[in-house]
Hints:
By secondary structure, this protein is an alpha+beta fold. It is built from 11 helices and 4 strands, in the order αααααααααβαββαβ.
Amino acid sequence: xxxxxWKDEVEDYLFITxxxxxxxxxxTVFLLPYEIPSGGLTGVSALIYYTTGLEMQVSYLIANAxxxxxxxxxxxxxxxxxxxxxxLMLTFFxxxxxxxxxxxxxxxxxxxxxxxxxxxxFMAVIFGSSLCGMGLAQCFLHQGSTGGVDIIAAIVNKYRHxxxxxxLLYLDIFIVSASYPLxxxxxxxxxxxxxxxxxxxxxxxxxxxxxxxxxxFIITKHPQDISxxxxxxxxxxxxxxxxxxxxxxxxxxxxxxxxxxxxSVALFRLVKAIxxxxxxxxxxxxxxxxxxxxxxKG
Length: 298
């Protein structure tokens, strides 16, 4: 049990690290060079960078350090430990990626290179926000957080009946809107809202796709053969339920199987090979928790 727990923890930190790397690449390669505003504390740090030249990771680390001091007292160490790790790693990745890009642009370069071309701000938004969305999804899927406004939202949620998602949306809209008085550029303001939309859309898509499962009810005359094949060939299990056919009045066997969506075709082929007359019902399962699926939450 302890080995499994440690294995899961190591896996979480590896995926969080990979997600943070994607997030840093999205910012430093695409969003920062084109001065695109965005939501979150990284968006605030980016605005400071655009207007003062102070590197993004400096203000990001300082602001998170102050927020984490408050969060440790209000929310406790358990909430903060992975957030502290994520903040430190993202700070490092942002610093390292900027140094790498400046070095690739030449010794005298003072601005990050625009690899997509000078007038490709919209494409930069699409690529950058997509990478940020994928990176955030990896963090959230493994109980990670990039800190910043996540901490503020969690604190507000503890004392007020406002959902985390709604609070984060309000904060992001405020941060992106605040870019106009600083940058005085309607186009970049529009790009900021596009970035917010695309990032959240990709985030939702990745999280839902990874977690998507399907549930089958199989009425068959060969329940033992099919269940054995499912266990052996698909590394899944099944539950045998007793049933009665309402039309025939005869007892029937019903197998309930939960599997990943990408295993659906394999299961249909397996059942057809054993019992071509079987009746199969397939439905989408919104959330499946337990062994072989997502960790049980609560």
